[in-house]
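Input chain follows. Return structure tokens only.
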Amino acid sequence: MEKSQKLFFCVALVLAVLAMAGDVANAQSTICKMPIAGLMACKPAVTPPTPAAPTADCCSALSHADISCLCSYKNSNLLPSLGIDPKLAMQLPAKCKLPTPANC
């Protein structure tokens, strides 16, 4: 499977899971108030084994996201199934110089 097809499949999977969870209205364009394009901009920064530094686009999208909502995914099996390291994902706010909720 081609890289772009894998990416599309991963995004479709996330959207399907959110739709099943009852977040149908927001699942079409955002996850936790973060646009799909923003999530994709952040993926290289949370993908092992050698994650890239978060880009300005990633940090900008993350600054508008509901971080507490995103934190709810940290123990989910969904992130690893998409090639995302939850520990790297939890480091993103600090790397983007954004506050991290205390309960995250």
